[in-house]
Amino acid sequence: MLLKTLIFSGLLVMFMPVHQAKAEGQLTIYCSVQYRVCERMTQIFSEKYNVDAKFVRNSTGSTLSKIKAERTKPQGDIWYGGTLEPHFQAADLGLLYPYRSPKQAETIPQLKSLLDKHGEYTSIGYMIVLGMGVNTEKFKQLGIKEYPKCWKDLIDPKFKDQVQMPDPRSSGTGYTFIATLVQLFGEDEAFRYLKALHKNISNYAQSGTEKTNLSRGDAAVTVGFIHGYETEKEKGAPVKAILPCEGDSYSLGGISIIKGARNLKNAKLFMDWALSAEAQEIPWRKEKMYQIPTNIYAEASPNSADPKKLHLINFDFDRFGSDEEGKRLTKKWLDEVKLK
């Protein structure tokens, strides 16, 4: 369909504007990006617009579960970040407020058809590319000379107890990985692969922790979005990002207003701002987080993956973004892989 060629769990943090005496309203952001990015985005928005903003940081899957649980009495106003598919699932369930931001007009043209169909409820704030990370020192310790080049390399017995992937029950990254395999190999072969991979898995990690675990040598290989591996490398960790040979999968960062938002005006203001070039450069300029901006006027970091050099699959967001399909595949993974 498109782009073919192209824990802080539950912590509540509040920011008060430093130079202004009274905030103009409030805002509660449910945030599913890295903690430091949540913190920085909230702080800058608060100071720029004189809004008393706070955020709750959770993984994508956990945030969706939280919004479901609060549907009769919403506590959040806007959901920022996390993989796109759970945002679409939230829309399917009637959990989102319709708002098509005028800033969608500045989104890269490759995403126009997706926004035409789904942009009434969800906007797109960034792009992230799925891949593998390896700990180069761990490979030396294990005496393994070659890094994996393809997804199928990870089922080699030499990687027994040395692979981690995010748990798809709570992690949007984990679900994106399963959806990617189904699209690359077909569902039957994808689940045969996941069963074989299970023999090498040491831990189905909570969202985001797989990169930290890799950096400290708890695993030799992990599955994740590659911008996170680049950040770990800059911190000095012996980490290398790898794009698998079968083709490059990706996801997009969603931004959605929660139905029943108590601070609707500020939720719309935050969405408009988060879609701006200024806001989309904040993660890499301020926090060295290298997701790819989707605003046509935003500058990407030199450390970000270059979409022009990627061989991206035709990710079917309609199918894999449906609540029914998400539940079905996650349950199938649990029943046929995790609990076997």
From TrEMBL:
Residues 1-23 form the signal peptide. This is Iron ABC transporter substrate-binding protein. One of its GO terms (cellular component) is outer membrane-bounded periplasmic space. It holds the Pfam family SBP_bac_6. InterPro entries: Ferric-bd. One of its GO terms (biological process) is thiamine transport. GO terms for molecular function: thiamine binding; thiamine pyrophosphate binding. SUPFAM superfamilies: Periplasmic binding protein-like II. The keyword DNA repair does not apply. It comes from the Bacteria. Gene3D superfamilies: Periplasmic binding protein-like II. Keywords: Signal.
